[in-house]
Structures are given as structure tokens and as C-alpha cells.
Write a structure and sequence with these properties.
2 domains, single chain, mainly alpha, Arc Repressor Mutant, subunit A, elongated, 10 helices, Tetracycline Repressor, domain 2
Length: 201
């Protein structure tokens, strides 16, 4: 029977997932994504290849699972920010933009923006890795409009989908040039808030 690390099976699995994530990040810093296979990831994580298949049946499934796990802290952070209803909606949007772009600097989450990324990573809807963030932002925009802080948006879902393009461009820019993080965050905040601002009467 394989040796169990941690105090429980669940803790053991969490530790293995952390090892797989670290191994993937290390490999991504050394070589092109397409040249990495599950054997490389398993070896770097200190796992037998057959053991890795207990966690994911193939490379694509492994990367999707790692992306979902890597995105969880950002999802939780955005939910907490969105719930700070004593703060202006614009301030919360500003903080969310920075938090999401910071999260997307992670090499694993950057795989969502890679040309030719699989549909499992780029799909929209409830199964998308960061879908909960999209929902939180939609609700925040509705709240801001109801409070008179934002203009009335006819189709909130479409608006957020279009604004997601700004965030994607920002994440891609940060992936290419990490030193551009602050400037990219500032530009994204400016564009997004300008698009939501209530017109002066």
C-alpha cells in the first residue's frame, strides 16, 4: 500500500496536488508547454507515472484541475471583496481588478491565455475555472447601478463578457512582461471604471 503523507487521505491528496502544481510551474519556467508531458510532471513531482493517473487521466485534465485549484484563492478573495457593501462599488471593482490580474500572473493560470489553449480552459459558463468571479462582478455591477454609482447597464452579462476582454489582454501582457504589472493594472482599472461610470447629468 502506498505511503500516506499527512494526517488523512484528504491532506495527502492536497499535498500531492501541491507537488504537481509546483512541478508544473518549474517545468513551465524551463520549457515550452507543448513539450511537457505527464511523465515529466510526474517525475518532477516525485510520483510514479501510474500514480499521477489516479489524479488525472491525461495532461489536459491535469492542467484543468490544476487551474481550478490555482484559481480558488482568487475566487474566495473576490467573493470577500464583493461582500464589502459598506464600500463604494467602484472601489471594490478597482480592488478586484488588481486581485484577479495578480492571480493571473501565476504560470498555471497563464495557461488559460496561451494561444491554442484547450476548450476546457477557455470555455465560458459554470464550468469555467474563474466563473464564480464573473458572477460576483455581474452582481456588483447590478448593485452599483441600483445605488446610482454606475450607469444602468442593459445587458450586464454581455457587459462583463466584454470587460473580460480587457482583463484577458491585461493578463496576457503581464505574462509577457511581469514588470508591467502596475501599469497594466492601472490601465485596466481606468478602462473598466470609465465604461461603468454614470454619465454626468
Amino acid at each position: 500500500m502506498p505511503r500516506i503523507r499527512g494526517a488523512s487521505i484528504e491532506e495527502h491528496h492536497d499535498m500531492v496536488w501541491a507537488d504537481l502544481a509546483d512541478a508544473t510551474r518549474q517545468l513551465l519556467s524551463e520549457r515550452d508547454y507543448d513539450s511537457i508531458n505527464v511523465g515529466h510532471i510526474a517525475a518532477r513531482a516525485g510520483l510514479a507515472r501510474n500514480t499521477l493517473y489516479n489524479y488525472a487521466p491525461d495532461k489536459n485534465a491535469l492542467i484543468v484541475a490544476l487551474t481550478e485549484r490555482a484559481g480558488r484563492p482568487a475566487v474566495e478573495k473576490v467573493a470577500a471583496i464583493a461582500e464589502r457593501t459598506d464600500e463604494p462599488a467602484a472601489d471594490r471593482i478597482r480592488v478586484i481588478v488588481e486581485a484577479v490580474l495578480d492571480a493571473c500572473s501565476d504560470q498555471i493560470l497563464q495557461l488559460m491565455f496561451r494561444p491554442g489553449a484547450s476548450d476546457s480552459l477557455t470555455e465560458k459558463g459554470p464550468d469555467a475555472p474563474l466563473h464564480a468571479i464573473v458572477v460576483a462582478v455581474e452582481d456588483l455591477i447590478r448593485e452599483g447601478a441600483a445605488r446610482g454609482e454606475f450607469r444602468e447597464v442593459g445587458d450586464v452579462r454581455l457587459t462583463v463578457e466584454l470587460l473580460s476582454g480587457v482583463m484577458r489582454a491585461g493578463a496576457e501582457r503581464i505574462g509577457r512582461d511581469p514588470d508591467a504589472f502596475s501599469a497594466t493594472v492601472g490601465a485596466a482599472q481606468e478602462i473598466i471604471l470609465a465604461s461603468l461610470a454614470d454619465s454626468p447629468r
